[in-house]
Specification:
Elements: H1 17-28, H2 32-43, H3 46-55, E1 72-74, E2 79-81, H4 83-92, E3 99-101, H5 109-118, H6 120-128, H7 145-157, H8 174-177, H9 184-201, H10 208-211, H11 215-218, E4 226-238, E5 250-256, E6 259-262, E7 273-283, E8 289-295, E9 303-310, H12 313-324, E10 331-336, E11 348-353, E12 356-364, E13 372-381
Antiparallel strand pairs: 1-2, 1-3, 4-7, 4-13, 5-6, 5-8, 8-9, 10-11, 11-12, 12-13
Helix pairs in contact: 3-5, 4-7
The structure holds zinc ion.
């Protein structure tokens, strides 16, 4: 049985790179000694200075929508922003905004120095919101993601509100771009044209490779809001199907909504141990986590070795509940009961240990003659 090769992952890797890679490192780290070292780092030097910055009047409200108590920072733009606006910042790509968590990421002295230099929300907004046309409204904390995204992209990506000296003449005046929401297709096309125009205007003297607008910034990615991060530890496979002569070269492909990631290939092994952690952002609609095992073939399309789908909603809910409670004792939060109807080999228990909400799952691979996959899920909700 053959399946199409999974799509090339080169630009669908973990969406929201930027700050998330630091968050990722923090999140991935397991050893207690590192944990205590981190604790120390968090309470001294850059951490303290960052906390002081957060307490400054201008930084107590989100730079983009005015929501109180922002916990996210665009480290290159120098603004303190709320969780909702941080989603839009991430979607623009790290070349526009590098989002870090004020609480969860590790900050270096240099990064904090940079923030201090940029001057905080008030100073940065004076530049990026120097001139807002009367037909454009700054979003409110309760604004829709579409309004928020529209404003933030105009502000930082298209640089539409810069001081008139800095804002070069625009061939497509903003007023013409205002369309009703159901005229979406037209708007997209329009914004794209505008963006290309903008990119071009600013690209004199640059290499051709730098001139191309990135594909991602034109996509609908900006409309997706993330509600959390999920770390998937692909532990091992047992008794997997044979796809080559006597064995297989298996790897695991994971996808969640638009994103996909994959493990390394383990050669010639029907009981591979990957122990590989992969990170995905959880989109607002919380799609199921799709798991597909493939056999890597050098000269033909990779062979299908089974698949499974995991509902991650219970885990996310458990993680959210834990975040707001003060329980720190190890405990069992719930389980996903194995039955003949689903793909579980044994109950997938959701547990809380060391403040982390985890779920270990043994999956019987579907649409294949045999094979069990063991994976461990860990969830971090992104709330304020
Ligand atoms: Zn905001």
């Amino acid at each position: 049985m053959e399946e199409p090769v999974p799509p090339d992952d080169s630009d669908t890797k973990y969406v929201g790179a930027g700050g998330s890679s630091c968050l990722y490192d923090l999140f991935c780290s397991e050893t207690p000694s590192l944990e205590s070292q981190r604790e120390e780092l968090l309470t001294s030097g850059p951490r303290k200075r960052l906390d002081n910055l957060l307490r400054q009047a201008g930084n107590k409200l989100c730079a983009d929508c005015g929501a109180p108590d922002p916990k996210w920072v665009s480290s290159n733009l120098g603004v303190f922003i709320c969780i909702k606006c941080s989603g839009v910042h991430r979607s623009m790509g790290v070349h526009i905004s590098k989002v870090l968590s004020a609480k969860l990421d590790e900050w270096t002295e240099e990064q904090v120095d940079e923030l201090v230099k940029l001057g905080g929300n008030t100073v940065v907004n004076r530049k990026y919101e120097a001139y807002i046309p009367s037909n454009i409204k700054k979003p409110k904390p309760s604004s829709s993601n579409e309004e928020r995204s529209d404003f933030i992209r105009r502000k930082y990506e298209q640089l539409q509100f810069l001081h008139s000296d800095e804002n070069m003449s625009c061939p497509y005046p903003p007023s013409q771009e205002k369309n009703s929401p159901h005229d979406k297709k037209h708007t997209d096309k329009y914004v794209t044209r505008h963006r290309i125009g903008h990119t071009f205007r600013n690209s004199w003297g640059r290499k051709d490779s730098e001139r191309k607008p990135t594909k991602k910034s034109n996509s609908l990615a900006g409309m997706i809001e993330f509600v959390g991060l999920i770390k998937v530890n692909v532990v091992k496979g047992t008794n997997l199907a044979v796809r080559d002569m006597k064995s297989s070269d298996p790897y695991v492909h994971l996808s969640l909504g638009q994103q996909s990631v994959r493990t390394r290939v383990i050669k010639n092994n029907l009981n591979p141990v990957w122990n590989e952690s992969l990170m995905l952002s959880i989109p607002e609609n919380i799609p199921p986590l799709k798991v597909i095992v493939y056999d890597k073939d050098t000269f033909s399309t990779d062979d299908f070795m089974g698949e499974a789908e995991i509902d991650i909603q219970p885990l996310l809910q458990a993680a959210k509940a834990c975040e707001t409670s003060s329980i720190s004792e190890p405990m069992q939060l719930g389980s996903w009961v194995a039955s003949t109807d689903n793909t579980l080999v044994k109950d997938g228990i959701i547990s809380l240990e060391d403040g982390k909400v985890r779920q270990l799952i043994s999956l019987r691979l579907q649409n294949v003659e045999r094979g069990v996959l063991e994976i461990e899920l860990e969830c971090l909700p992104l709330t304020q």
